[in-house]
Amino acid sequence: MDNITANELAGLGVGTLLLCAAIAAPRVDAFISASQRSSLGMCKRCGDLRMIACSKCKGVGLVKDSGPFSFNLVDDLVQSFEGAESKVKSISCTKCQAKGHFSCPDCSKISQV
Questions:
Q1: pLDDT at 3
Q2: Which domain holds residue 79?
Q3: Are 96 and 62 in contact (CB under 8 A)?
Q4: What is the pTM of this model?
Q5: Res 107: pLDDT
Q6: Are residues 33 and 55 in the same domain?
Q7: CA–CA separation, 58 vs 9, rounded Å?
């Protein structure tokens, strides 16, 4: 890397900015939705649904039993489009007892008072 041009430097800067924006997007979305819920007088956490999704199984109730390093995006996409059964064994989520959700802690505090 003898000389770097202005275009290369700008491309690196824009790429870095896009990567940071992609990483921060879920947090920004959560902040915006919480502020909208509070302005409407709803529960900030669940939006008056009185339940929140399990963070381990993402609300499904099942977890893939495939080990920590066996993520395959192509197989997941093919299974979702074709509706094929998964080759990976699924086990019940132990965090939520296979329900997929918990009762909202903020709403349960209000109803107990």
A1: 85
A2: 48-113
A3: no
A4: 0.52
A5: 82
A6: no
A7: 39
Assess whether 64 and 21 both reside in one domain: no
User: CB atoms < 10 A from the CB of 57, how many?
Assistant: 22
How many folded domains does the chain comprise?
Answer: 2
- Shared-domain flag, residues 21 and 52: no
As a whole number of angstroms, the distance between CA 36 and CA 7 comes to 40
Asked if 101 and 65 sit in the same domain, the reply is: yes
The pLDDT tens digits of the residues spanning 21-77 come to 999 999 999 899 989 988 998 988 888 888 888 888 888 888 877 655 555 566 566
Please indicate, yes or no, whether residues 34 and 52 belong to a single structural domain of this protein. no
Residue 104: Cβ-neighbour burial (10 angstroms; 0-12, 13-18, 19+): buried
At 104 the three-state DSSP class reads: coil
